[in-house]
Amino acid sequence: MNYKREHTCIVNVGIFRSGTTTLAEAAARLGYKIYRRFPNLSPGIHKKILQNPRDALQEWASSGGIDEVVHLACNHDLICDGWIALLPFLPVSSLRQVMRQAKTWNVEIKFVATSRDVEDTVKSELQHWVVHDLERRVGLSSDERKELETNLRARAYQHQDHILNLSGLVELLPLAGNIHETWPDSLTNVSMNSAESWRNALAHVGVCNSNPSLPVEGILLTMRLGGSAADKKVEKLLGCVEEDRLCKYLLVLGIDEDELDTDAAHVLIKQLQSRAELKQQMQSLHIVTNPSQPSEKPFAVCRAWNTMAVEAWANGADWVVLLGDDVEISCPFHYRAFYRSFLDISNRLCVPFGFGCPFWNDRSFPGFPSFPCIGKAHHDIFRALIPEHRQDSFVNQDLDPYIHILYAKLGASPCVEEATLNNGLGGKLNPRYEKVPAQGWRDFVLDDFRHYIRPYIPEGTPEDVLLDVIVPSFRVQVDYLKSICYLKVPNRIRTNFIIIIDNKEALLRVAKDLSSYRTRISVSEAEGLLERYLARTGNTIRVRCNEFNLGASASRNRGLDESAAEFVLNLDDDLVPDNDLLEQYGRKLMEIDEKVVGLVGLVRFPRAPDIPIRHAAVLMSYLAFMFEIAERSDMYTPAWGVTANILFRRTNTRFDLIYAKTGGGEDVDYALRVTEASGGGTLLPVPEARVVHPFWPGSVFSLASHFYNWSIGDGALFKRFPQHCYWSFPNLPETILISLPVCLLTQIGLWDYFQFIMHCFVADFLVDIIFGDYNHRISIVQGTGKDQVDMKRSHLFYLIAHILANLYVVGLECGRLRGHIGRLDAQYGVFRRFDWHIGRLVDAPTRFRKREAQKFFVFAAIFVRLVKKASGDGE
Length: 875
Hints:
Glycosyltransferase 2-like domain-containing protein, P-loop_NTPase, Spore Coat Polysaccharide Biosynthesis Protein SpsA, Chain A, nine-stranded mixed sheet, Nucleotide-diphossugar_trans, transferase, glycosyltransferase activity, 15% strand, alpha/beta, 4 domains
């Protein structure tokens, strides 16, 4: 059209979602130039338009809004939506000013207002907010989301009142009745087109709605009716469901076969049928029968869930969720939240709507997917809730986490944080039936993902890494646990932090400190308190407590049994990780192939210019060498690493319980068996994945005792892996052991024998000083890389540290000898050594044997001199 000559512009001041799309589409068919855009608004302005539209519009008008309307009118034949829909909130004088200004440009403005029932408008706007993700984009808080419906309704009523006050200035176009008959006559009053042309245009476009049809939520409900007030509980639950006015749902009720003909069942079914007739939100009711089963068998709720889900999907449900009559929903916008979550999954993965299983935020069991909402795509893939080949695996436990893990690698099973509920009889509390865990589901769930879920999604879709962190804890030192559980979890990694408490009393003490108002706390409550405390940053935390002290290996095994991840990261409970620990592991995991069975992180002992001499001795003893092996990739690729910081692929292999509860040897054993079971897999070092391990507390003798206890158990490796053992000359404790009978036979005095031991210890130290690598040991104390410190300590300091280092080693050798004797390991014990480098350093056994030979010959010379002296004294 030629806008240099006079023309008419229809300005539709109807509120959003009131028929504006229908009018615009009809006008477009008649050749009108349409403007119906929503401007890009800041969250603050958008929120103000929602909560205080009058002030928002007046601010807009005073900053050039009137001129903007006139400009749009001069260049279009019909304008609507955006700020235009809110013009009725301006005074009538302002609207007349718009008309006068437009007239100066030869443009005549005609106001119309499409309208519809307020409740229908609110419902349509709610869906618009969900579909266009406005709640998140505007930044509504949880409380503001609860008030969204109220604010939309208030705005709609205010708008309606203002339209009525504009009588005579605005032509009304109600979206009620047959608009093909009512609108054309009204539109002829504001346009040059005939009623017939408008009628034809409206007939062609129909009643337009830019929103898709609302999805249907399938509520699955089963319970024992008994003598309880089941009908009241169900009514209460459905009332909570319907608090979300947008919610459109169907109900599938599972009734046990033996209760189907009871009065309670008849009353409940009749009430629900009446509800379905009266409530528009409830689309339909479906009754399924749970087959009777022997009383001695537990209720197969998973199979009942499967039957109900199939029934719901067959009747049009877009997603299903199994609820119980004891569930209390505390989120009045749960439907909107899940609707948006499914849209997010669909948009991100380019899959049909209904793929995935976002889950409720169960306040009684935080972080656990107790109530997943399973989309209809699951039925398209498996033709059921439980895959046919897994029907016998699930009785009444573990189906929810199994389905959750099926979609976890795609990030398609998120917790919908705002959709909160409380589960009265589930969660960590005992349910009404005997629990029957599903055997082995953690071992086959990722196979099912690869075989069934992955082919459904577009090729090349990036997958997340499932990496759980397992921390056994005896000490339960909260500050250390916080440093682990507060780790930053990268976007492409899905992580559960699994804390296995191996000291019930310590857990109860910590829980009491965390809960000042409780005097008596159960173990289950203590787990929950610590769990919530450690989950403050939003990470998923599980705290489990052993009934009895089982030891590090058994606790790690329990952690493995709790995990269904691809990878597990073992950490100790007395270290401080770098905040990017998971990010560093994640980068390496993106590079490796299937042959790599694990990654060895760096366990750094702290260096400092004022390091205590007893701690410098630990470093000079080489006893901490394997802790820092990850940064020695110039030497070799490690065959094992300490469980203080090591990552493995999750397998069926478990830690062996033959080793000491406090640890020692189990890490070597596990790593070697994992690599062997993989058919020759390898470990790779990741020095960037760093944790700082404080030195063990206590005096020199406490540290020596620590190493003594450490080595009592690791001697079991000699018999388990004889291929990594070799013969050597007796070390100092073994020399003492074999010399003692001779001393008794030759009647050597105690003082002389004590001197012999002291002389041997001095000889042990001197051989290391003369033939060893004294300067290299000093460099270890000073550190490397970013941990290197400028230490100006005297040679006397390092000499004393070296002496203490030899003391630690002797303590370690004494513990190992005691372990051999206790296990009666004659063939694989005394005079045998373990190649801790597992063949990576080819000459390591030879060099070690040579050093022990040098020491032993000196020991022997000292002993011969002692015997000669004793013989001379005897003569």
